Amino acid sequence: MNTNYPKSIIEYYCSNPSSFEERVNSTKKKINLVLMAVSLLLIIFPSIIPIGNWIVRIVAIIGLLYFGLAAFLFDRSWYNKVSGGKIKEIAIKKFAFPERGSTWGSEDDQRIIAMFEREDWVGLANERAADDRPMQLYIHEDAIGKTFYLQLMCYLPGVYIIQGVTDVKVINEPQYSEVYKIIKSIKST
């Protein structure tokens, strides 16, 4: 397997800082920090809400963890610097073949990679899908810039690390409009 491919689409964004930037949604972060503070207050003073103290504390602890993680980890998004558009993950399709535990480089692997390389989006859309499979198609979209970013990734046999097995394909206008319906028809598994 070629190891020169980006390990993920995110790595591709990181390696092209002139085209992409990661931004923090400061409004969401502030809201999550306020809700985190409210949760902490309820842990310390559960009698503010006249329900059982332990119920209030348990819910507040869950809230503190959730809002804390959201404030510090999940309020980041990638943006295309040229278009200003937010890049969103729209699907992860897990192909039914190859099956989990199969040897890397099998006929099924090569067939899916070949479809991706020749941009057979109809074939990839129609390929059977199943949950918990090694070969996966990641699809991101910048709707404002009318751009798709696609990459095939695979869990390596014996190792539960996902690795990019192709380059990231970037589909811009006018091809974006031509394949829009087909790529949007690919659903997450």
Short summary:
With 189 residues, the chain is of the alpha+beta class. The protein is built from six helices and seven strands; from the N terminus they run H-E-H-H-E-E-H-H-E-E-E-E-H.
Q: What does this entry look like structurally?
A:
The protein is an alpha+beta fold. It has 2 domains: 26-74; 82-184, no CATH class. It is 38% helix and 22% strand. It has 6 helices and 7 strands. Strands 1, 2, 3, 4, 5, 6 and 7 form a 7-stranded antiparallel β-sheet that branches. A hairpin with a 6-residue loop joins strand 5 (147-155) and strand 6 (162-164). Helix 2 (26-44) runs antiparallel to helix 3 (53-72). The model has no long low-confidence stretch (mean pLDDT 89).
What is the number of helices?
A: 6
When the domains are counted, the total is 2
**Helical content class:** 25-40%
Question: Outline, from the CA principal axes?
Answer: globular
Number of strands: 7
Chain-wise SSE layout:
Elements: H1 9-14, E1 20-24, H2 26-44, H3 53-72, E2 76-80, E3 86-94, H4 107-117, H5 121-126, E4 135-142, E5 147-155, E6 162-164, E7 169-171, H6 175-184
Antiparallel strand pairs: 1-2, 2-3, 3-4, 4-5, 5-6, 5-7
Helix pairs in contact: 2-3
Please give a handful of descriptors for the protein shown:
7 strands; alpha+beta; single chain; 189 residues; 7-stranded antiparallel beta sheet; 38% helix; 6 helices; 2 domains
